[in-house]
Amino acid sequence: MSPILEVSGLSKRFGKVVTAEDLSFSLPEGEALGIVGPNGAGKSTLLSLITGVLDPDAGTIIYAGRDITSLSAGARSEAGIARSFQIPRPFVDMTVFENAYVGAAFGGGNHGQVGYEGAAHALEVTGLTHLSDVPAGQLRLLDRKRLELARALATQPKLILLDEIAGGLTDKELPPLIDMIGNLKDAGVTIIWIEHIVHALLKVVDELMCLAEGKILAMGDPQEVMRSPEVIEVYLGSTFDLGEAS
Questions:
Q1: Residues 141, 111: contact at Cβ < 8 Å?
Q2: Residue 126 sits in the same domain as residue 168
Q3: Which of 46, 79, 86, 141 is the most exposed place for a label (fewest CB within 10 A)?
Q4: pLDDT of residue 49
Q5: Are residues 143 and 223 in the same domain?
Q6: pLDDT value of position 240
Q7: Are residues 161 and 241 in the same domain?
Q8: What are residue 165's phi and psi, to 5 degrees?
Q9: Final residue of a domain: which of 113, 134, 156?
Q10: 167 shares a domain with 75
């Protein structure tokens, strides 16, 4: 299958701190890539570079055959790239549906009936339809995480970037979220997922990338990456949750 995303020589530094150094990889359409790494490895920076929140110092990003390296974040969103953030920040005084509609209208550029239908579908996929009229500020953490995902899905993305979406959830709350992300992949959405709860990642992703100090330390089969001596050394004393994958 042809790649939907091709990253070549991507680099970014803040002063003397290098957060991305000559990163190169490709992601086939419809597959899921997991990203692991210690704090400060450059994981969130990579997502910000792909979404256009940050400009790279060097390198190129090709999305769906188009060079988007200089494209604005808004234009990338409308082209089909969406992102959820580690800490959900919904508009707390707006309803769940209104939050999703904001994603559809201002993230995906779909207003009116198309936007309403996109928001409704996103809530259906994330299991939030019954909470449509509830103010987002009243949601529990799991439902806030679902709403964060719904707002991204309302843009009707081809590629979705998830930043530690499982963080803070209990063991009982994890399986529904894992199933939801797996269903998105089965529906053809390409996924890049950063996560510290590795056993959640391993249930979904096709490939796993380990970042360390802004560089790709290992990439490939998820189980082989986690068994790599270099990866094990990086994570000695880390906060990684291998859970069932250990």
A1: no
A2: no
A3: 141
A4: 98
A5: no
A6: 56
A7: yes
A8: -70, -20
A9: 156
A10: yes
Whether the model clears a pTM of 0.85, i.e. scores above it, the answer is: yes
Helix/strand/coil (H, E, C) string of 83-143? EECCCCCCCCCCEHHHHHHHHHHHHCCCCHHHHHHHHHHHHHHCCCHHHCCCEHHHCCHHH
At residue 245, the pLDDT reads: 47
What pLDDT does 31 receive?
A: 97
- Residue after which a domain boundary falls, among 156, 180, 206: 156
- β-strand 159-163 against 17-28: which pairing, if any? unpaired
Specify the pLDDT at position 243.
59
Among 37-41, 119-123, 144-148, 230-234, the range scoring the smallest mean pLDDT is 230-234
- Alpha-carbon torsion 214, 218, 221, 225, what sign? negative
| Residue 242 · residue 198 · CB < 8 Å | yes
CA distance 221 to 205: 9
| Residue given tokens 């042809």 in the structure block | 2
Nearest to 212 by CA among 60, 68, 63, 20: 20
